[in-house]
Automatic annotation (TrEMBL):
Pathway: Carbohydrate degradation; pentose phosphate pathway; D-ribulose 5-phosphate from D-glucose 6-phosphate (oxidative stage): step 1/3. NCBIfam families: PRK12853.1-3 (NF009492), zwf (TIGR00871). NADP(+) binds at R50, D93, L94, K156. It catalyses: D-glucose 6-phosphate + NADP(+) = 6-phospho-D-glucono-1,5-lactone + NADPH + H(+). Substrate binds at H186, K190, E224, D243, K348. Catalyzes the oxidation of glucose 6-phosphate to 6-phosphogluconolactone. Its EC number is 1.1.1.49. The keyword NADP applies. This is Glucose-6-phosphate 1-dehydrogenase. GO terms for cellular component: cytosol. Belongs to the glucose-6-phosphate dehydrogenase family.
Amino acid sequence: MKSTKQPQPTVFIIFGGTGDLAWRKLAPALYNLYLDGWMPEHFSIIGTGRTQLSDDQFREKLLEGIDQFSRSGKAKADQWAIFSKNIYYQVSDLKDAKTYHELGARIESYEAEWNEKADLIYYLAVAPNFFPIIADNIAKKCPKEGMDRTRIVIEKPFGHDLESAKALNKQLQGIFDETQIYRIDHYLGKETVQNIMAFRFANALLEPIWNRNYIDHVQISVTEQLGVEDRGGYYDGAGAMRDMVQNHILQLLCLIAMEPPINLDADEIRNRRVDVLRSMRRFDADAIRFSAVRGQYGHGWIEGKEVPGYREEPEVNPESNTETFAAVKFFVDNWRWQDVPFYLRTGKHLNQSASVISIQFKNIPHSIFPPEAAENWQQNRLVFSIQPEMSIRLQMQAKRPGLDMTLNPVDLVFDYSGTYHGKPPEAYETLLLDTMMGDQTLFMRSDQVEAAWELIMPILHAWESKKSLSFPNYPAGSWGPENAEALIAQDGFHWFTLPVNGKHG
Ligand code: BG6
């Protein structure tokens, strides 16, 4: 985990420099790190892409992204003038050795100018089929003695299935040491997600009740109002399980279910996270029918606007069998969690955009209150709201003021916006700084990625081998397919939602 040190001089090379990620996320993140004083004294950012652009044109493009997406608002002219001097652009063909020789020469020229060696961060914001090509070329063509100062950052998707993830790991590990490979899962960088560990392990109160004796079930719900937008080409080959469950949602589950680590070392924490994945119950073909639900959105309405069904989206197969919704009931087979269900759900074009983890505690063993006292009986719940509301809520029963004894659920709330001023850093700020600092805590280790694939492969196989006859099975703007309600209702629970902008949806 980060200290207050500053990173070493750094050359930051973004493959896919003209892409969406660089524009929306990476440039605003680097700029905010600069504003907050986290960038090293000497740094360069080189964007690469096929488009012919001058340095100035590239800077303009990044500035547009910063002006639109930076948490600190539009860039200030004087700050931008200094920051942008460190940005360069190189037209590149990723398959051509010349690209890498040119990059190598640039790196050497910056180092000569600074009179010191730099850490080299290669950020692969490109389609996954380029990962091995780039990795190979970096190793062969970039300055040899720079290899031990090199880090490679890999965006998701990391593999398409277990086999391809293993092959990619093998390939990367044949070139780089595991300590040089940074597999991004941007959920791990979110402020509220990082706080799950702080909240669990910095408070003595929770650990004694954080187990099967007190916890009834856990829900992790990551719902989105957005559809696939212009990403149909990618999404139709992926689906909700690959896009969200294999990575983000399983990582959230790991943070909730992990054992206390003995310290904050990156590998200690990653060991505890991977232990969870390894303890998770495997599905046999029969169990999948009762434990996993898939859905695909049809035509519907989002916030009063009519939207087409998934099969009508650009670059999507009109007979697509791809799921845009997934709900799964998992179990973690260990002493702490035996028989406690973990319900996960995620989907596109749902009623609300909200990422919420709800831990529901068991009911009281004996009630001293007459039935009429409990108007709205609600078992205790601890709710981590990751976004859009950033809060932690403990839901308790309390006496409603009045002369009679009537109980009502009330929330004890820790709300970021009421407690702290200013917007917290974006996930990419944290993750880029960690990469510069060489801290891998919030990145996926090879065994984690593989364990997550291994867990979901039986579900993917079952779904891919049998076309869904009911697709589309939920209208855009709803809460997903009815079967997802049944998945949790059959155990006597219901999906928990927090009101967004005062509405429950
Ligand atoms: C990405 C997925 O990893 O996460 C997208 O590919 C999804 O499909 C996005 O929309 C959600 O991230 P966030 O930070 O907006 O919740």
